[in-house]
Specification:
By secondary structure, the protein is mostly helical. Helices cover 36% and strands 9% of the residues. It folds into two domains: 86 residues, Peptide Methionine Sulfoxide Reductase, Chain A (2-Layer Sandwich), CATH 3.30.1060; 50 residues, no CATH class.
Length: 137
Amino acid sequence: MRNRSVTFDPHVVSYATILQIYFSVAHNPTELNRQGPDSGPQYRSEIFAESAEQQRVAEAYIAQLAAAKAFRAPIVTRVEALRGFYPAEAHHQNYATLNPESPYIVYNDAPKVENLGKLFPAAFRQRPKLVAVAAGD
Protein backbone atom coordinates (compact mmCIF):
# COMPACT_ATOMS: atom_id res chain seq x y z
CA MET A 1 0.00 0.00 0.00
CA ARG A 2 1.26 3.45 -0.89
CA ASN A 3 1.68 6.02 1.85
CA ARG A 4 -1.10 8.53 1.29
CA SER A 5 -2.40 11.31 3.45
CA VAL A 6 -4.97 14.03 3.55
CA THR A 7 -3.57 17.34 2.37
CA PHE A 8 -4.92 20.84 2.08
CA ASP A 9 -3.78 24.01 0.36
CA PRO A 10 -3.77 26.89 2.89
CA HIS A 11 -4.33 29.27 -0.03
CA VAL A 12 -7.67 27.55 -0.64
CA VAL A 13 -8.76 26.76 2.93
CA SER A 14 -7.00 27.72 6.13
CA TYR A 15 -6.20 25.40 8.99
CA ALA A 16 -8.37 27.65 11.17
CA THR A 17 -11.34 27.09 8.85
CA ILE A 18 -10.75 23.33 8.92
CA LEU A 19 -10.83 23.45 12.73
CA GLN A 20 -14.02 25.52 12.70
CA ILE A 21 -15.71 23.04 10.37
CA TYR A 22 -14.46 20.07 12.39
CA PHE A 23 -15.87 21.42 15.64
CA SER A 24 -19.10 22.94 14.33
CA VAL A 25 -20.20 20.61 11.53
CA ALA A 26 -18.21 17.39 11.25
CA HIS A 27 -18.83 15.79 14.63
CA ASN A 28 -19.65 16.21 18.29
CA PRO A 29 -16.37 16.84 20.18
CA THR A 30 -17.98 15.99 23.53
CA GLU A 31 -18.67 12.34 22.74
CA LEU A 32 -15.94 10.05 24.04
CA ASN A 33 -15.30 7.02 21.84
CA ARG A 34 -18.47 7.56 19.86
CA GLN A 35 -19.83 9.54 16.93
CA GLY A 36 -23.56 9.31 16.44
CA PRO A 37 -24.56 5.64 16.24
CA ASP A 38 -20.96 4.41 16.00
CA SER A 39 -19.08 3.55 19.16
CA GLY A 40 -15.67 2.28 20.14
CA PRO A 41 -12.20 3.78 20.53
CA GLN A 42 -11.79 4.04 16.73
CA TYR A 43 -14.54 6.73 16.83
CA ARG A 44 -12.86 8.94 19.38
CA SER A 45 -12.59 12.64 18.69
CA GLU A 46 -8.99 13.31 17.75
CA ILE A 47 -6.88 15.65 15.67
CA PHE A 48 -3.60 14.37 14.26
CA ALA A 49 -1.33 17.37 13.74
CA GLU A 50 1.37 17.32 11.06
CA SER A 51 3.50 19.89 12.89
CA ALA A 52 4.06 21.37 16.32
CA GLU A 53 2.43 24.58 15.03
CA GLN A 54 -0.73 22.75 13.96
CA GLN A 55 -0.85 21.03 17.35
CA ARG A 56 -0.44 24.35 19.18
CA VAL A 57 -3.17 26.02 17.11
CA ALA A 58 -5.60 23.11 17.61
CA GLU A 59 -4.98 23.02 21.36
CA ALA A 60 -5.44 26.80 21.61
CA TYR A 61 -8.70 26.59 19.64
CA ILE A 62 -10.02 23.84 21.93
CA ALA A 63 -9.09 25.96 24.95
CA GLN A 64 -10.99 28.93 23.46
CA LEU A 65 -14.07 26.78 22.84
CA ALA A 66 -13.91 25.40 26.37
CA ALA A 67 -13.51 28.85 27.92
CA ALA A 68 -16.46 30.14 25.90
CA LYS A 69 -18.50 27.11 26.99
CA ALA A 70 -19.35 26.52 23.34
CA PHE A 71 -20.65 23.03 24.18
CA ARG A 72 -22.87 21.80 27.00
CA ALA A 73 -20.41 19.07 27.94
CA PRO A 74 -16.61 19.10 28.17
CA ILE A 75 -14.66 18.77 24.91
CA VAL A 76 -12.90 15.39 24.83
CA THR A 77 -11.03 15.87 21.54
CA ARG A 78 -7.39 14.85 21.82
CA VAL A 79 -4.60 16.42 19.79
CA GLU A 80 -1.57 14.28 18.98
CA ALA A 81 1.25 14.27 16.48
CA LEU A 82 0.49 12.45 13.25
CA ARG A 83 2.43 9.18 13.23
CA GLY A 84 0.98 7.70 10.06
CA PHE A 85 -2.01 7.72 7.79
CA TYR A 86 -4.14 4.68 7.14
CA PRO A 87 -6.83 5.05 4.47
CA ALA A 88 -10.13 3.31 5.03
CA GLU A 89 -10.97 0.18 3.11
CA ALA A 90 -12.08 0.70 -0.50
CA HIS A 91 -15.76 0.01 0.30
CA HIS A 92 -15.74 3.02 2.65
CA GLN A 93 -14.22 5.43 0.12
CA ASN A 94 -16.73 7.90 -1.40
CA TYR A 95 -19.51 6.05 0.44
CA ALA A 96 -21.85 9.02 0.86
CA THR A 97 -21.60 9.94 -2.83
CA LEU A 98 -22.05 6.37 -4.02
CA ASN A 99 -24.84 5.58 -1.54
CA PRO A 100 -26.84 8.82 -1.03
CA GLU A 101 -30.05 6.93 -0.18
CA SER A 102 -28.43 4.76 2.50
CA PRO A 103 -30.34 5.32 5.77
CA TYR A 104 -27.02 5.87 7.55
CA ILE A 105 -26.09 8.69 5.12
CA VAL A 106 -29.58 10.21 5.07
CA TYR A 107 -29.81 10.32 8.86
CA ASN A 108 -26.22 10.95 9.98
CA ASP A 109 -24.20 12.55 7.20
CA ALA A 110 -26.53 14.41 4.82
CA PRO A 111 -27.56 16.88 7.58
CA LYS A 112 -23.88 17.63 8.23
CA VAL A 113 -23.28 18.32 4.53
CA GLU A 114 -26.33 20.59 4.48
CA ASN A 115 -25.03 22.47 7.55
CA LEU A 116 -21.62 22.82 5.92
CA GLY A 117 -23.26 24.55 2.97
CA LYS A 118 -25.17 26.90 5.27
CA LEU A 119 -22.42 27.72 7.77
CA PHE A 120 -19.40 27.69 5.46
CA PRO A 121 -20.62 28.45 1.94
CA ALA A 122 -17.13 29.48 0.78
CA ALA A 123 -15.76 26.05 1.74
CA PHE A 124 -18.68 24.09 0.33
CA ARG A 125 -18.65 22.16 -2.96
CA GLN A 126 -21.91 20.97 -4.43
CA ARG A 127 -19.97 18.13 -6.09
CA PRO A 128 -17.34 16.77 -3.67
CA LYS A 129 -13.83 15.88 -4.70
CA LEU A 130 -13.77 12.10 -4.60
CA VAL A 131 -11.03 9.81 -3.38
CA ALA A 132 -9.25 7.90 -6.12
CA VAL A 133 -9.29 4.27 -5.05
CA ALA A 134 -6.37 2.24 -6.41
CA ALA A 135 -6.84 -1.38 -7.40
CA GLY A 136 -5.85 -3.71 -4.60
CA ASP A 137 -6.69 -1.25 -1.80
